[in-house]
């Protein structure tokens, strides 16, 4: 046996996407020198961080979901798009608001799996097609990624309705 170490393939580390800060309610992105926890633009949302590839743009519909799939925050644009009021929906299950868009053959596990994968993927982006619960004929592409603190997932309803 040779005293040389055994060579093996090592996965290439993913380059971390740059993080940006954003308001969970209005989507405003504070200047880097601003160190406020509450948004100074709307005075309503908590300032969170996420990879630039997943963070919502200003006034883009988004939801913040915790690791138990409970809704923690709803943006102003998502309130208007989905016809909900944040105080009424915070603390409820994501499945009460959004479900996978496919009518048959796809269970809620598909959406749940995407959310859980997004929570564990540092800088990664997961995508799914969803519809409002109880609605048919309306579908949205949602991109999901980790955000925080505290650790959560941001779901951004992209502008391109399917």
Strand content is: 25-35%
How far the N terminus sits from the C terminus, by CA atoms, comes to 60 Å
* Rg, Cα atoms, Å: 18 Å
Overall mean pLDDT: 83
Oligomer: single chain
Structure description:
The structure is a single chain. This protein has 162 residues and is α+β, with helices and mostly antiparallel strands. The chain has a domain at 59-161: PAS domain (Beta-Lactamase), CATH 3.30.450.20. The chain is 15% helix and 29% strand. Strands 1, 2, 3, 4, 5, 6, 7 and 8 form an eight-stranded antiparallel β-sheet that branches. Strand 3 (62-65) and strand 4 form a beta hairpin.
Task: Give a short synopsis of this structure.
The protein has 162 residues and is α+β, with helices and mostly antiparallel strands. The chain has a domain at 59-161: Beta-Lactamase, CATH 3.30.450. It is 15% helix and 29% strand.
Secondary structure elements and their pairing?
Layout lengths: L18 E5 L23 E5 L10 E4 L5 E4 L1 H7 L3 H4 L8 E3 L7 H13 L5 E7 L7 E9 L3 E10 L1
Antiparallel strand pairs: 1-2, 2-7, 3-4, 3-8, 5-6, 6-7, 7-8
Question: What would the keywords be for this entry?
Answer:
162 residues; PAS; eight-stranded antiparallel β-sheet; Beta-Lactamase; alpha+beta; PAS-like_dom_sf; PAS domain-containing protein; 29% strand
